[in-house]
Write a structure and sequence with these properties.
By secondary structure, the chain is mainly α. 56% of the residues lie in helices and 0% in strands.
Length: 157
């Protein structure tokens, strides 16, 4: 009888990120072992809700995305994820706008012309960047993709 080195048993419980570890079974063609499967595609109404969450931000700030998020708490993970991203962008844009207004108010103590010359273009560039991010995110949502917004435009991870 020959002795073979003992190998540890393959893990079968949940692994990192909550996915089940591969037990060496058959995998579908083109699907690497242990890799999580792709999420199910979103339904058309869910895609429309996700797009509306982003496109409502310029008009209602946080109101439309928050309503969509709260309505999507049960059973609509795609729309909920995009609505959460839109709420995050709206909240961050509000905070940045308040900071720009405070900067303008402080500069206005010295000169209103200097305050206007600095604060107005700064806020205009901010909102143009926010609009570009929102339109790109709405486009990704319309294709059924999850594209996170840039880190500088998020309050949290």
């Amino acid at each position: 009888m020959t002795s073979r080195p003992m190998q540890p048993p393959a893990p079968t419980g949940p692994g990192p990120a909550g996915f089940m570890a591969s037990d060496g079974g058959a995998q579908p063609a083109g699907h690497p072992a242990g890799a999580p499967s792709a999420p199910a595609p979103a339904s058309r109404p869910e895609v429309h809700r996700a797009m509306l969450a982003y496109l409502g931000v310029p008009f209602t700030l946080v109101l439309v995305p928050l309503v969509i998020y709260l309505a999507s708490l049960h059973g609509r993970p795609f729309a909920r994820w995009h609505a959460a991203q839109a709420v995050n962008v709206a909240a961050t844009a509000i905070v940045y706008t308040l900071c720009g207004l405070i900067l303008g108010a402080v500069l206005a103590l010295d000169s209103v012309q200097v305050a206007t010359l600095i604060a107005v273009p700064l806020l205009a560039v901010l909102w143009i960047c926010v609009l570009v991010v929102l339109v790109r995110a709405a486009g990704a949502a319309s294709r059924g993709e999850r594209q996170p917004v840039p880190r500088w435009l998020r309050v949290s991870r």
